[in-house]
Design goal:
The protein is an alpha+beta fold. It contains 29 helices and 40 strands. This is Glycosyl hydrolase family 63 C-terminal domain-containing protein.
Length: about 1100
């Protein structure tokens, strides 16, 4: 049996049942919320993760290493160091709000740089626009996956579970080998845009499990097959499938048959007081039935900065040595970098693999596992790729050649040295070996001298790998552990380098501090399952930060030390963005599928990010408006495939929401941020008005607008019918933009009266946009509202007075609901200039005011005023269809296209070609915009989020006076706050377990739902099937799908299990009683409109997200 010491450490590291171990009940609570307790989970999870400890060495060398199985004297209180959070709580007293909150404050004040090290590596740098120097702009073909292991990157780095410093000068990541694969697993594989039947898609299984905002603790899980990874099969099968078929995924192969795979957990932690001391622990579990061998090769490397300029900068260096003797030897890699300075990576010896059969007890007669220190250069292997001459004998793919004999080039016996035999390979053939030898291939087959070294025997270079080999790891959960530490400290100065217990204690303390941080967010009796989903969502959002570097001038012109790019490359994309100079940590939509920022995605990312790290959220929004991003004319860059594309103008909304979230949760009112962003957005608003309102009629043509294939025509290209597309959503987006700029101006006017005039300007602009969109005045103007159908539609204007509506029931007709703003009487009365201008409009433009301002003279609930595109009558008509389960209302949220079009598609013939829109609940059936996203039926969390907030705003005005049937035809009537909550619950049901233990997002895959090593982990997909809720598109898009964390925080307390009956109306009603315990900042009212479950007063304090008053939204 394992010693009590081992069991104690194992329990503290991962706890029982696969969930975090409880913090001590003696620890102080945070903001009145106790730390997690050992409460049984709703669905027990028999995941037990045990960390083996090395036994006492057979031959101890002085000084002896301290291990978990050493027989130490019985601990007394004075010998047991108290946890850092307890010492910090004692020091700070009432100012203590958690160890992680303290780190955030230190980072914000620049006292300590806690965010210097983080998960800033991309999951995919190959096949990105930045690495594309081709003549035709085909990034997928120019730099494919098979080049990535041999070819140095120019603009960034990628890896598995990788971290780097915030300027990406030094990178640390994971690589593995199962003894079967033709290459090392050092980056994630997926099919390209050309190979996938629904565009590009990663074909791996991995999870971002946890992260704190300062990355003081992070956890990642990669599932690595023990069989040969099915690279060829994944490509060929996806190529064979049509767009009408599902994608061929890794679980569809035999890769996980008989559970022959490894669970590889990667954890990072930082020392309690030093952000430059980084622990890395890699724990691998053999889930298969038989013993298996695993090679674990953590890698440390410098990005290649020396191959591009004619005058290279000083070259950084890595040098290695083994220190100590016998089983206590430690691998030491010394890092020297011109600007990063000097630090060390310590590779500790690992205990031999152990299994559950001996209760994870380490056999003291078995030697520990020592790493082989491998060094090479991060330089391109020109010989392998192009048949050229290498600049150095040691190249980027040297570890593949050194470890995998089958990867090595032909030796000199098979062909004369220096001879390169050219073979031509078709585009889709595999480059991973095992193919038909007669199959023609493209590229050289490089000979190499016998007995050559593929790694530098002098143990120096710019790329390092610590090669640990674990033989015969027992099956059914056998375990192998690797520990490393990146630190400037020297041996003898850092006890954690010589004492595994101290090492593991440090990692465990950071994990407990992560528990403390997230426990302070989750108020009320939220289920354990929802808490876990919320934490993974936040963790995924924090993991998907990435160092993004793009200097347009250098990229377009090419590098002096490299061959010049093809001349016509300058005209392919982004030539107008000469000012771009980006070198920042940015929030990515998905670090594999979309490893680049996207302007409107970023806005949605910042909402949940503001809950955990307002400073980072504000930085993201601020950066996109800075002069090295925004064009001089005010346009915000969209994304790297085409910076000039047009995304919906959501920046102002996000900036104000982040401002309010920080004020609500942290008590900080950052007016400097708000004013700075607002000033820049004035430029952007002007750009929109000048460029997208072609006729000056306040009806906008947005072009792309982020909704890809939602219309019958490609809205980024000229219409095949001729004429101009007048977009209901484009015009609604601008009305939404107007109202958010108005809202910000009103906030700023409370502190600076200059902004009253600006608020009046946006008020006036909104009125004219609303009037132009929704009402006819004479024969020369066309309305986008269809009275008969009760929906907004796009229209084609062929000439003045000659137009045609396109009767497609889609998000285009729901987006006008976004343009909604409630004005508190306290705000209006506080700003006399604005009030005077508004009253002038009421008196002098009564027709316009009456039909656009929702009974402006009498006001609504609490005498509030409503600015909205949709009048009450039109709102009710739209909601009748939006809440109809046979149209928009799915069990999992609001569909992007009405299900009506499943049986009744709409289309038209133009010049012999059919253009049609039908209901596609799953993946796209067309190649429009690459075919990897679909807005003709699926559920998108970003657009649902704005609908939910719109409903909450309408409730602020109408209160209980407006009750609608939800769902339509059900007989259940509720106010709009109740409707908003119902939509939120249905979105949460995408991820939560139902009464059968299934998650809708898993699409019925039993292994994901029921396997104890899968069922607690959640993927956050890009969009979701409109009928089933199955996850689709990018699988790690915690970017805007991370919004579910916000929904859980806001309504998780009342969320029922999926597929269970609704609460009867008589019981449900009390959730919507007006109940306030704080005054509205603006109105001074005791009933400013709390959330749908305001009756649960014990969880309604002033620092939660439950509040949906005008002050909070």
């Amino acid at each position: 049996m394992a010693s009590d010491a081992v069991k104690k450490v194992q329990e503290r590291i991962f706890g029982g049942g696969g969930r975090p171990a409880p913090l001590s009940t003696e620890d102080p609570a945070i903001d009145g919320i106790p730390f997690p307790t050992d409460t049984p989970r709703e669905i027990p999870t028999p995941l037990t993760i045990n960390i083996p400890k090395p036994a006492t060495p057979k031959q101890q060398a002085p000084p002896p290493r301290k291990t978990a199985t050493d027989q130490s004297p019985k601990n007394t209180d004075e010998h047991v160091p108290r946890a850092y959070r307890l010492r910090l709580a004692e020091e700070l007293g009432d100012d203590y709000h958690g160890a992680e909150r303290h780190r955030l404050e230190q980072d914000n004040k620049r006292e300590k740089h806690w965010k210097r090290w983080g998960p800033y590596l991309s999951d995919r740098q190959w096949a990105t626009v930045r690495e594309d120097y081709s003549a035709d702009g085909d990034a997928w073909s120019h730099f494919p996956h098979e080049h990535a292991r041999s070819r140095a990157y120019r603009w960034g780095e990628d890896g598995i579970a990788g971290i780097s410093d915030n300027h990406q000068r030094l990178c640390l990541g994971l690589s593995l080998w199962n003894g079967e694969d033709p290459i090392l697993k050092e980056r994630l594989f997926g099919v390209t845009g050309h190979q996938g039947n629904h565009g590009e898609d990663v074909k791996e299984i991995y999870y971002y499990l946890d992260s704190t905002p300062t990355h003081s603790y992070m956890k990642f899980l990669y599932k690595y097959p023990q069989r040969r990874f099915p690279y060829e099969d994944l490509v060929s099968q996806n190529q064979k499938r049509t767009r009408d078929e599902a994608e061929y995924e890794l679980l569809d192969t035999d890769a996980f048959e008989d559970d022959r795979y490894w669970d590889v957990f990667v954890e990072y932690a930082k020392d309690e007081q030093n952000p430059d001391n980084v622990y890395m622990r890699i724990t691998s579990y053999n889930r298969g039935p038989d013993p298996a061998t695993l090679h674990v090769i953590p890698q440390l490397w410098f990005p290649n900065t020396w191959s591009w300029p004619l005058d290279p900068p000083p070259k950084p260096s890595l040098t290695g040595t083994m220190k100590g003797s016998g089983q206590d030897q430690i691998g030491v890699v010394t890092v020297r970098h011109p600007s990063l300075g000097r630090t060390h990576l310590y590779c500790l010896p690992s205990p031999p693999p152990v299994g559950p059969s001996n209760d994870f007890e380490v056999d003291p007669d078995i030697d520990s596992v020592q790493p082989d220190l491998l060094f090479t250069e991060n330089d391109t292997n020109f010989s392998r790729l192009y048949g050229g001459q290498n600049n150095t004998p040691y190249v980027k793919d040297g570890f593949h050649d050194h470890i995998i004999h089958g990867h090595r080039p032909r030796d000199s016996d098979s062909e004369p040295e220096g001879f390169f035999r050219q073979r031509h390979r078709p585009r889709m053939a595999s480059l991973f070996g095992g193919e038909d030898p007669d199959l023609p291939e493209e590229g050289p087959c490089t000979p190499f001298p016998q007995n050559a070294n593929f790694v530098n025997p002098e143990k120096k270079g710019t790329k390092f790998g610590g090669h640990y080999t674990f033989h015969d790891v027992p099956g059914h959960g056998g375990c192998a552990v690797v520990r490393l530490k990146l630190t400037p400290n020297r041996l003898g100065k850092d006890i954690s380098l010589e004492d595994e217990v101290t090492f593991d204690d440090a990692v465990e303390e950071r994990r407990q501090e992560a528990d403390e941080f997230y426990a302070s967010l989750a108020f009320g009796p939220v289920s354990e399952d929802l808490k876990q989903i919320m934490r993974q969502a936040f963790g995924g959002m924090l993991w998907t930060k990435q160092y993004y570097r793009f200097i347009q001038k250098e990229w377009l012109e090419g590098d002096p030390a490299q061959p010049p790019p093809p001349p016509n490359r300058k005209w392919i994309r982004n030539k107008e963005w000469k000012h771009l100079h980006i070198e920042d940590i940015l929030s990515m939509p998905d670090k594999w599928e979309y490893p680049f920022f996207a302007a409107w995605d970023t806005a949605f990312h910042c909402i949940p990010l503001a809950v955990v790290d307002p400073a980072f959220a504000k930085k993201q929004l601020d950066l996109l408006t800075r002069e090295w991003y925004m064009k001089p004319d005010g346009q915000i860059p969209a994304y790297e495939w085409n910076f000039s594309d047009v995304n919906p103008p959501v920046h102002a909304w996000a900036a104000f929401r982040v401002f309010k979230i920080e004020r609500k949760l942290y008590g900080n009112e950052d007016l400097t941020f708000l004013e700075r962003v607002f000033q820049k957005l004035l430029l952007n608003f002007t750009w929109w008005v000048n460029r997208k309102d072609a006729g000056g009629n306040n009806v906008f043509e947005g072009g792309f607008l982020g909704l890809d294939n939602i219309g019958a025509f490609n809205r980024s290209e000229p219409l095949p019918t001729g004429g101009t597309l007048r977009q209901a959503d484009g015009t609604a987006w601008m009305a939404f933009y107007c109202l958010n700029m108005l809202n910000i101006a009103l906030e700023l006017a409370k502190h600076n009266p200059v902004y009253e005039d600006i608020a009046s300007k946006f008020f006036e602009h909104f009125i004219f946009i609303a009037d132009a969109m929704t009402f006819k005045e004479g024969d020369q103007e066309a309305s986008l509202w269809n009275e008969q159908d009760g929906m907004y539609y796009d229209a084609i204007e062929f000439s003045p007075g000659n137009s045609m509506q396109l009767p497609v029931r889609s998000l285009v007709g729901l987006i006008p609901l976004y343009a909604t703003l409630v004005l508190e009487p306290g705000v209006i009365n506080r700003l006399p200039g604005f009030k005077k201008r508004m009253e002038w409009f009421i008196e002098n433009r009564p027709a316009v005011a009456a039909r656009n301002m929702a009974n402006m003279k009498t006001g609504g609930k609490e005498q509030r005023r409503l600015l909205a595109l949709a009048s009450k009558e039109r709102l009710v008509k739209i909601l009748e269809k939006m809440l109809d389960e046979d149209e928009f209302f799915s069990d999992h949220g609001i569909r992007s296209l009405s299900k009506l079009h499943e049986k009744h598609p709409w289309g038209m013939d133009v010049h012999g070609q059919r253009y049609e829109v039908g209901y596609w609940p799953g993946d796209s059936k067309s190649g429009m915009f690459g075919g990897n996203s679909n807005w003709r039926g699926p559920i998108w969390l970003a657009t649902n989020f704005l609908l939910i907030e719109s409903l909450q705003r309408f409730y602020q005005y109408y209160g209980d006076d407006l009750q609608v049937e939800c769902p339509t035809g059900s007989g259940y009537y509720m106010n709009l706050a109740g409707v908003a909550e119902e939509v939120q619950h249905r979105i949460i049901h995408i991820f939560g377990r139902d009464h059968e233990g299934r998650r809708a997002t898993n699409g019925g895959e039993s292994k994901l739902d029921y396997d104890p090593h899968f069922r607690d982990y959640v993927h956050f997909y890009e969009f979701f099937n409109g009928d089933t809720g199955k996850g689709l598109g990018a699988s790690h898009q915690t970017g805007w799908s991370g919004l579910v964390a916000y929904h859980i925080l806001q309504t998780g307390v009342t969320c029922r299990l999926p597929k269970t009956p609704k609460t009867p109306r008589s019981v449900l009603h009390h959730y919507f009683d007006e109940h306030l315990d704080t005054k509205s900042e603006y109105g001074g009212s005791e009933a400013a409109g709390k959330s749908a479950f305001s009756a649960i007063s014990s969880f309604q304090d002033g620092h939660t997200l439950y509040d949906i008053s005008p002050d909070a939204l």
